[in-house]
Structure formats: structure tokens, C-alpha cells
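Progress narrative, Year 2. Work on CCD27 protein from Leptocoma aspasia advanced from sequence curation to structure prediction during this period.
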Amino acid sequence: TGAISSLQRRMEIQESELRRIRSEKELLQKQLREREAQFQAISDKFYNLTEEQRQEEAVVTMEEENRNLQQVVTEQESQLAEQNKLITELQETISQLRAEAVTTRLQLLQQKQAQEEIQSQVEALQHKEQQTRVALEIISSKFERYRNKIIQATFSVEGSRDPQGELTDNEVLEALQKIINERRELQQKLKNKGSK
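Result:
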């Protein structure tokens, strides 16, 4: 926003300078037209003089006026050329500033869109994390119930001793595997004896 404001201020200054130069150009053109009118008036004046006066005065006056007018025209044409050059440069500067302002606005819009997209992704990840936590709590609860059932089934078998303190998963598995092995051996013995 600061960059856009700065570009707009620069653009306003350049446009004000352009208006001033155009005004000066119009003034120079007006002065040039006035000189041409003076030249025409002098020409008309000499035309109305007598032939002899015309011949005597016209040469000197016309030459002097021609030199003066030619000098004025040359100076004003030079000034107009400089003014036109400056106007062109100012127009180019204004166009550049406008392009920079458009580019800056576009960059700000892109940054805003990227920020909104990132915010949306963050919210989606937070929602997914919450769902994962809930699912993990459910699974942990189910696992704990299942583990307790295994411990209860393992140590409720006849001849087994009640566990002393907290059991690790390996201890539970070893106890369960022992029961499975004993039942397998018993089943094999009964099978060897031919009993159903």
C-alpha cells in the first residue's frame, strides 16, 4: 500500500509537470502567432506606403524585422522542440509509473491469495490433526480394552499365577504363548492316545 501511494504521488507530480509544460508550449505557440501577425501587419503597412518610401524603408526595416522574427521563430521552435521532448519523457515516465502501480497491485493480490491459500491449508491440517487425535484416542482405548481382556484370559487359566504389578506387552505375549504351547502339547498327547 505504501509503494502504491508513493507511485501515485510521483505520478501526480509528473502529470502536474506535464500540464505546466503543455501550458508553456501553448504560450509559446501563441507568441509565435502574435509575431507572425506583427510581421503580416508590417507587410501590410509597407504595402500602403508610397513606392519611393516603400523602396527606401522596406529594405532596411524588412531585413531587420526578418532577422528579429527569424531569431524569435528559431528560439521558439527550439523551445517547442525541447518542450515536446520533455513532454514525451514525462509521458513515458507516467506510463512507467502506472505500469509499476499495476504490477505492485498484482503482486499484492497474489500475496493475499497465497496467504489465504496457506491459511486454508493450515485450517485443513488442524482439522485433520484433530480427527487423527480423536481416532488415536479411540484406537488406544480399544487397544487397552483388548489388552486387558488378553491379560484376563491369560491369567484366569487354571494353574496360572496372578501377575505381580504392571505387565509389559512382552510378558503378556510370553504368558499367552506358554498357554498355547501347553494346549498344543495336550492336544497332541490326546491325539496320540486316540481320544476325541
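Residues 125-194 form one domain. The chain is about 90% helix and 0% strand.
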